[in-house]
C-alpha cells in the first residue's frame, strides 16, 4: 500500500485541515510531515470550530491513528495548550490513545522564539514576515547539528543538553542583537509541557509508518504551509524553513519515494498570502478588501490579515509539476459568488517577454500578471449538496482550470464545514 500525500499548492491557507478531516475516516494513519506551530489548520463540524497547529487533522476519528512526524518541529508549550483545549472540548487524546509523536522530531525552545523575534526586528523593512514561533532558528539548529529532539526528553541528561543549547542562544542574543531577556516564566511552562508529552507514545516513526505500509494499511501524509513557501523551490528568501512539497513527506516521515501514491493538491479559487514576499496577482484595492472580508482571510494562528489576489496559473502549474499532483481540490469557491467578473493569471510579462512558467526570481524582478477575464456567478454555493446544483458558470471555471492544469479537480469545497464538500469525480 502506498502513502497518499495532501498538501497546499499556493502560499498556504488553502484549507488543508478541512480536507484532511473530510478524508480521514478512509485512512488508518494521518501523519504530519513538516512545519510546526506556524500552521493553523481549521476544522468545522457539528457547529464547532477547531484550529490545529501541530496535531494532525485526523484526531476527531476514533479509528484513525495520528502521528506528528520527524520532520515537524514541536513547541511543547503550544502543543500542551492545543491538547488542553481539545480535552476541554471533549477530545482527550491521551485517553483516546490516537496520537503518537516521532522521537526524531525537533524541539522548539523558548530561546528559539527570542532569536526569531530578534532576527526579524534587526531586518527591519526587509523582514521575512515570520510568525515568530521559533520555527526558523529551530530548523537552523537541526541542520547545524545542535538541536534537541523529542527522544531526548527521556534521557537522564536532558536538562544538561537543554542548558547547553540555551547558553548558546543567550550568548547569540547578546552578541548579535544586544538583547538580554528574562524567559524564566516561559521556561517553567516548557518543562511542565515536557512532562505531559512524556505520557504520549514516543515512537521510531520511520518503522511505524513503513509497518503500516507493509501491512496494507492506508496512510495519508499531511503537509503544512504551501508549495510556494518551500525552502528550495518557493519564492526565496520569503519562504518557510522546511520542504513543503511531496518530497518533504519522504524525509519528514522516513518513507521511500517509491512508496508515494496519490498526491492531492489543494488550492483556493483565488489566492492569498501572509507576510512579505512577491505576489504577482495581489489586489491592493476594494476588490482585494472584499475578498478578504467575504473569505475571512485572517491567519488562523496569528490573526494577521492575508493579502488577496486572483488565481495564479503559472505558479499553480509549477507547484503541480514539483509535487507530481494527481488530484486537485478547489476550496472557497463560495467566496467568489457575487463577483460579475473574476480573473485568472495565465502568463507573466517578465523582463520584456511573456512567459507561462515560474522564473528563478520574482522577488527582485517583478512578474506582471496577464489576466484572463471570466464570467462570475451570483448563486449562493454554501447550501448545495448535489452536482446538478453547481452553477453553469462555476462549472465552466472548473473546466477551464482542468484544461489549463491538466489535472482533474476531484473535490469542491463550498464552505468551512466538513459537510460543505462535493465529490466531483
Automatic annotation (TrEMBL):
<dbReference type="GO" id="GO:0000287">
    <property type="term" value="F:magnesium ion binding"/>
</dbReference>
<feature type="binding site" description="in other chain">
    <location>
        <position position="131"/>
    </location>
    <ligand>
        <name>IMP</name>
    </ligand>
</feature>
<dbReference type="GO" id="GO:0046040">
    <property type="term" value="P:IMP metabolic process"/>
</dbReference>
<feature type="binding site">
    <location>
        <position position="306"/>
    </location>
    <ligand>
        <name>GTP</name>
    </ligand>
</feature>
<dbReference type="InterPro" id="IPR033128">
    <property type="entry name" value="Adenylosuccin_syn_Lys_AS"/>
</dbReference>
<feature type="binding site">
    <location>
        <begin position="413"/>
        <end position="415"/>
    </location>
    <ligand>
        <name>GTP</name>
    </ligand>
</feature>
<feature type="binding site">
    <location>
        <begin position="300"/>
        <end position="306"/>
    </location>
    <ligand>
        <name>substrate</name>
    </ligand>
</feature>
<feature type="active site" description="Proton donor">
    <location>
        <position position="41"/>
    </location>
</feature>
<feature type="binding site">
    <location>
        <begin position="332"/>
        <end position="334"/>
    </location>
    <ligand>
        <name>GTP</name>
    </ligand>
</feature>
<feature type="binding site" description="in other chain">
    <location>
        <begin position="13"/>
        <end position="16"/>
    </location>
    <ligand>
        <name>IMP</name>
    </ligand>
</feature>
<dbReference type="GO" id="GO:0004019">
    <property type="term" value="F:adenylosuccinate synthase activity"/>
</dbReference>
<feature type="active site">
    <location>
        <position position="142"/>
    </location>
</feature>
<dbReference type="Pfam" id="PF00709">
    <property type="entry name" value="Adenylsucc_synt"/>
</dbReference>
<feature type="binding site">
    <location>
        <position position="40"/>
    </location>
    <ligand>
        <name>Mg(2+)</name>
    </ligand>
</feature>
<comment type="similarity">
    <text>Belongs to the adenylosuccinate synthetase family.</text>
</comment>
<feature type="binding site" description="in other chain">
    <location>
        <position position="225"/>
    </location>
    <ligand>
        <name>IMP</name>
    </ligand>
</feature>
<dbReference type="GO" id="GO:0005737">
    <property type="term" value="C:cytoplasm"/>
</dbReference>
<feature type="binding site">
    <location>
        <begin position="40"/>
        <end position="42"/>
    </location>
    <ligand>
        <name>GTP</name>
    </ligand>
</feature>
<feature type="binding site" description="in other chain">
    <location>
        <begin position="38"/>
        <end position="41"/>
    </location>
    <ligand>
        <name>IMP</name>
    </ligand>
</feature>
<keyword id="KW-0658">Purine biosynthesis</keyword>
<keyword id="KW-0547">Nucleotide-binding</keyword>
<dbReference type="InterPro" id="IPR042111">
    <property type="entry name" value="Adenylosuccinate_synth_dom3"/>
</dbReference>
<keyword id="KW-0479">Metal-binding</keyword>
<dbReference type="InterPro" id="IPR001114">
    <property type="entry name" value="Adenylosuccinate_synthetase"/>
</dbReference>
<keyword id="KW-0342">GTP-binding</keyword>
<dbReference type="GO" id="GO:0005525">
    <property type="term" value="F:GTP binding"/>
</dbReference>
<dbReference type="InterPro" id="IPR042109">
    <property type="entry name" value="Adenylosuccinate_synth_dom1"/>
</dbReference>
<keyword id="KW-0436">Ligase</keyword>
<keyword id="KW-0460">Magnesium</keyword>
<comment type="function">
    <text>Plays an important role in the de novo pathway of purine nucleotide biosynthesis. Catalyzes the first committed step in the biosynthesis of AMP from IMP.</text>
</comment>
<dbReference type="InterPro" id="IPR027417">
    <property type="entry name" value="P-loop_NTPase"/>
</dbReference>
<protein>
    <recommendedName>
        <fullName>Adenylosuccinate synthetase</fullName>
        <ecNumber>6.3.4.4</ecNumber>
    </recommendedName>
</protein>
<dbReference type="InterPro" id="IPR018220">
    <property type="entry name" value="Adenylosuccin_syn_GTP-bd"/>
</dbReference>
<dbReference type="InterPro" id="IPR042110">
    <property type="entry name" value="Adenylosuccinate_synth_dom2"/>
</dbReference>
<feature type="active site" description="Proton acceptor">
    <location>
        <position position="13"/>
    </location>
</feature>
<keyword id="KW-0963">Cytoplasm</keyword>
<feature type="binding site" description="in other chain">
    <location>
        <position position="240"/>
    </location>
    <ligand>
        <name>IMP</name>
    </ligand>
</feature>
<comment type="pathway">
    <text>Purine metabolism; AMP biosynthesis via de novo pathway; AMP from IMP: step 1/2.</text>
</comment>
<comment type="subunit">
    <text>Homodimer.</text>
</comment>
<dbReference type="GO" id="GO:0044208">
    <property type="term" value="P:'de novo' AMP biosynthetic process"/>
</dbReference>
<feature type="binding site">
    <location>
        <position position="145"/>
    </location>
    <ligand>
        <name>IMP</name>
    </ligand>
</feature>
<feature type="binding site">
    <location>
        <begin position="12"/>
        <end position="18"/>
    </location>
    <ligand>
        <name>GTP</name>
    </ligand>
</feature>
